């Protein structure tokens, strides 16, 4: 085959290839990309930062507060911990007329009487006067939790009342079972039917 013929074939092939590329580019150029699409996305992101968005959170639970707000209140009888040290267990024994009993709550005392507060919102389920433990109030809270306040006086609530957290429900008093403690509050926290150490639950969610 002569060189001139070969050169002619190469030239035709090259022209065809160039033509195909040009046609392909023209086809793609017919598809218009809206010039505002990028700006729209950009504006959307700007809107997210320009507006105050409120984060959706689950409703928080109320944390347990102490049954008093007065200063100078101290523990005078501990909660009996089966796993605690022997010395601490000895401080958690209630002695009454020859009988030793394990304290299922905590006794708080101060130099004088102090207000007793509801540790959580709830419904008053019981108000009793008992010769042994003195006046007693029981409040039912959410999640099968109960708080019990004993050795109190000047009770301001009655059975069936609804109380809010921090409401004053009584003033500290005395009881026959713990005469040696004089004026004090005996406080018990019951969670799912079990008495627990309140000191481990304050400021915690229930």
Account of the protein in words:
The protein has 206 residues and is an alpha+beta fold. It folds into 2 domains: 3-50; 74-200, Distorted Sandwich (Glucose Permease (Domain IIA)). The chain is 23% helix and 30% strand. It contains 3 helices and 12 strands. It has helices at residues 3-29, 36-50, 86-90; strands at 74-77, 93-96, 99-102, 106-109, 115-117, 122-130, 134-141, 145-153, 162-163, 168-172, 185-191, 194-196. The chain starts with a helix and ends in a 10-residue tail after the last strand.
Overall strand count: 12
DSSP summary: helix tally: 3
Helix percent reads 10-25%
Q: What is the end-to-end distance? A: 97 Å
CATH class value of the largest domain: Mainly Beta
* Range of strand content: 25-35%
Q: Give the uncertain stretches in residue-range form.
A: 2-6, 29-58
Order of helices and strands: HHEHEEEEEEEEEEE
Query: Architecture of the largest domain in CATH?
Result: Distorted Sandwich
Structural class: alpha+beta
How many domain regions?
2
According to CATH, the fold-level topology of the largest domain is Glucose Permease (Domain IIA)
* Overall geometric form: globular
Q: What is the overall pLDDT average?
A: 79
CATH homology-level superfamily of the largest domain: Glucose Permease (Domain IIA)
């Amino acid at each position: 085959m002569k060189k001139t013929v070969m050169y002619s074939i190469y030239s035709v092939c090259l022209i065809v290839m160039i033509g195909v590329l040009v046609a392909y580019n023209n086809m793609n150029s017919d598809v218009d990309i809206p010039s505002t699409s990028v700006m729209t996305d950009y504006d959307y992101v700007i809107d997210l930062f320009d507006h105050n968005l409120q984060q959706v959170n689950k409703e928080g639970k109320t944390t347990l507060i102490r049954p008093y707000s007065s200063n100078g209140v101290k523990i005078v009888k501990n909660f009996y911990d089966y796993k605690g040290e022997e010395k601490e267990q000895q401080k958690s024994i209630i002695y009454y007329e020859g009988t030793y009993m394990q304290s299922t709550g905590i006794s708080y005392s101060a130099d004088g009487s102090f207000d007793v507060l509801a540790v959580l919102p709830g419904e008053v389920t019981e108000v009793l006067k008992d010769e042994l433990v003195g006046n007693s109030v029981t409040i039912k809270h959410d999640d099968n939790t109960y708080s019990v306040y004993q050795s109190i006086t000047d009770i301001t609530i009655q059975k069936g009342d609804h109380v809010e957290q921090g409401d004053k429900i009584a003033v500290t008093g005395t009881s026959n079972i713990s005469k040696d403690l004089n004026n004090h509050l005996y406080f018990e926290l019951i969670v799912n039917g079990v008495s627990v150490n309140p000191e481990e639950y304050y400021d915690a969610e229930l």
